[in-house]
């Protein structure tokens, strides 16, 4: 079983702990702090464990030319990419306000640090864990600086190879034992044939000492529920208040009713995973009493006869007796009383 650690105060992941569900608000708030607060409340109401945003220090994340290029997408919030990104970026004070709001209503709050300076700010405001977006997973200097800060890390694996993930593992493990990898494919929305849930058990084999999770960009909830059944201990899904809103992430996001149903489905599946010990359960007693079979006499038997297999058969009987799987153990044993045809054979009737 994978190692467990405390991802947030009082909330462990891995081992037998329930899946930690992250509602990824990202930038689906449209640059409006009141919408952002409504989304935090929605995440809480739907049963998610954490509301997550994306924090950038824009001039540190992008080059000057990248910010100045024209941006003509139907999702654009400004004439240049820089104007678009600035519209969607909350200030430090607004982040503190959102963090306080989340604290007040009782849901964990964090963000993906999209550059090293963003990580510095998130560290300053004491987020419980750092989320590493797929675009930074192979950014080794960033990973080293982030890992050295000592906070737990949730690391997505989109656009990476398993070879790269081993490099990431070695880089982070040197400085920080508390991290998890999320299986992720970076496409929005994600075609089902490229989800590759089979990588969850593969990650478990490659990295048996850390929890494994799933960051999904597909539509609907079924795949994410399956991910949990396969062992995902952290689940991240984008959320929105309205899939028709402007923004490239909304189409791959869950609306409130879907998020609530996902949380319910995950908790149901976790309960259904149950125990790996196979045994008859108390809840099966009624069915066994009605339908369970026993060894009975195939023909009348005389006291003192030595039993052979052709004297015995298996039927639903009243009362119940020797279990069918023990029929061969009766062969060669002496019966201690007279029995009519179809009489139940019990342990008390057997000599030796």
UniProtKB/TrEMBL annotation:
Signal peptide, first to last residue: none
Q: Which UniProt keywords are present, listed alphabetically? A: Transferase
Q: What is its EC number?
A: 2.5.1.57
Q: Which InterPro entries match?
A: AFP_Neu5c_C_sf (IPR036732), Aldolase_TIM (IPR013785), PseI-like (IPR051690), PseI/NeuA/B-like_N (IPR013132), SAF (IPR013974), SAF_AFP_Neu5Ac (IPR006190), SAF_PseI/NeuA/NeuB (IPR057736)
Which Pfam families does the annotation name? NeuB, SAF
One GO biological-process annotation of the entry reads:
carbohydrate biosynthetic process
All residue ranges annotated as the AFP-like domain in the record: 294-352
Q: EC class of this enzyme?
A: transferase
Which reaction does this chain catalyze?
Answer: aldehydo-N-acetyl-D-mannosamine 6-phosphate + phosphoenolpyruvate + H2O = N-acetylneuraminate 9-phosphate + phosphate
Molecular functions per Gene Ontology: N-acylneuraminate-9-phosphate synthase activity
User: What is the recorded name of this protein?
Assistant: N-acetylneuraminate-9-phosphate synthase
* Origin species: Carassius auratus
């Amino acid at each position: 079983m994978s190692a467990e650690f405390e991802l947030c105060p009082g909330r462990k992941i891995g081992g037998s702990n329930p899946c930690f569900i992250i509602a990824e608000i990202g930038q689906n708030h449209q640059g409006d702090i009141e919408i952002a607060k409504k989304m935090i409340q929605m995440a809480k109401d739907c049963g998610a464990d954490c509301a997550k945003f994306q924090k950038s220090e824009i001039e540190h994340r992008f080059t000057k030319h990248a910010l100045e290029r024209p941006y003509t997408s139907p999702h654009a919030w400004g004439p240049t990419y820089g104007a678009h990104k600035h519209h969607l970026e909350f200030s430090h004070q607004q982040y503190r306000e959102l963090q306080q709001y989340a604290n007040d209503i009782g849901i964990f709050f964090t963000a993906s640090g999209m550059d090293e300076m963003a990580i510095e700010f998130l560290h300053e405001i004491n987020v419980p864990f750092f989320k590493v977006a797929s675009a930074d997973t192979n950014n080794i200097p960033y990973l080293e600086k982030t890992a050295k800060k000592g906070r737990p890390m949730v690391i997505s694996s989109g656009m990476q190879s398993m070879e790269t993930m081993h490099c990431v593992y070695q880089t982070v493990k040197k400085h920080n034992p508390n991290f998890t990898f999320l299986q992720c494919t970076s496409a929005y929305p994600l075609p089902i044939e490229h989800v590759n849930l089979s990588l969850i058990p593969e990650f478990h084999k490659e990295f048996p000492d850390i929890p494994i999770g799933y960051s999904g960009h597909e539509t609907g909830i079924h795949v994410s529920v399956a991910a949990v059944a396969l062992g995902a201990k952290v689940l991240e899904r984008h959320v929105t208040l309205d899939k028709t809103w402007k923004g490239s992430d909304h189409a791959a996001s869950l609306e409130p009713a879907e998020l609530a149903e996902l949380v319910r489905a995950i908790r149901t599946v976790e309960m259904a995973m149950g125990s790996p010990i196979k045994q008859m359960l108390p809840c099966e007693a009624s069915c066994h009493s009605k339908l369970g079979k026993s060894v009975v006499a195939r023909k009348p038997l005389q006291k003192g006869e030595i039993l052979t297999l052709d004297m015995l058969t298996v039927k639903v009987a009243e009362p119940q007796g020797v279990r069918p799987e023990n029929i061969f153990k009766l062969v060669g044993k002496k019966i201690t009383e007279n029995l009519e045809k179809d009489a139940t054979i019990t342990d008390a009737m057997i000599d030796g």
